[in-house]
Amino acid sequence: MSSLNQKTEQLKRYLEKLGRVTVAVSGGVDSMTLAFVAHEVLSSNAKMVHSISPAVPPHDTQRIQEFATKYGWNIHFVESGEIRTPSYQSNPVNRCYYCKSCLYSTLGALSFGQVVSGTNLDDLDDYRPGLVAAKEYQVVHPFVEAGFSKQDIRQLALQLGLPALSRLPASPCLASRIETGIYIDDNNLALVNAVEQHLRAKINSETLRCRVQKQQVSIELDDDTLARLTSQEVTSLTQEVGLITARFDSSVPIQFMRYERGSAFVGDKQCLTS
């Protein structure tokens, strides 16, 4: 198995061979680390592009802005417009396909070299309809080409002197919290963000998700956090979340429960990649 240093050298050689790239930067550890390396290797020939959207947590956009300023990135902000696309708004189980199609068509239209993503080897084993869109738009995945797993990327970020980034919890787009079939709009995305930001200020939790479901709003936490909360604390937090959801005209019950990956996806998850 290749060492991290070997994989890193392979990554750099791959980027050098591409020569000019547009990096799709979401604000997570994968795309941010790729952007950092791409800038290191290609300088201004690496354009970092971030799509501002109601589905993107504002603190992710802020993180990108801070990195771009600190490290002198060639940064470009766009709106890919998925939130106005009926196929996306209807929230089918392959919603990510429509989101990534909007994103990659927008990035491709910039005509700035090869579009690259932060996809890694671990992503290939998950249900990722967005990879179908990536294939259709000829997007390439340097971390996959260089054999990087998610843990490899975290170790690379640490090696690059980015410890806070290396520890960044996974934070998929806000739309991933909306149960399949529930119409996606600015209102329910803002609800999710408001609840999560409030709870993150209250709870030191490794994993925290606010799920908007047909019958309830579920607050999903990792096992350790759930075990640590007293019944009185849960009651108090439930009341606080209720006040927030009421601002968004939501009156469904609120339930604290164990985190379950992908629990908002309901339906046939048959892999669409070939």
From TrEMBL:
Active site: 173
GO molecular function: sulfurtransferase activity
Coiled coil: none
SUPFAM superfamilies on file: Adenine nucleotide alpha hydrolases-like
Name of the protein in question: NAD/GMP synthase domain-containing protein
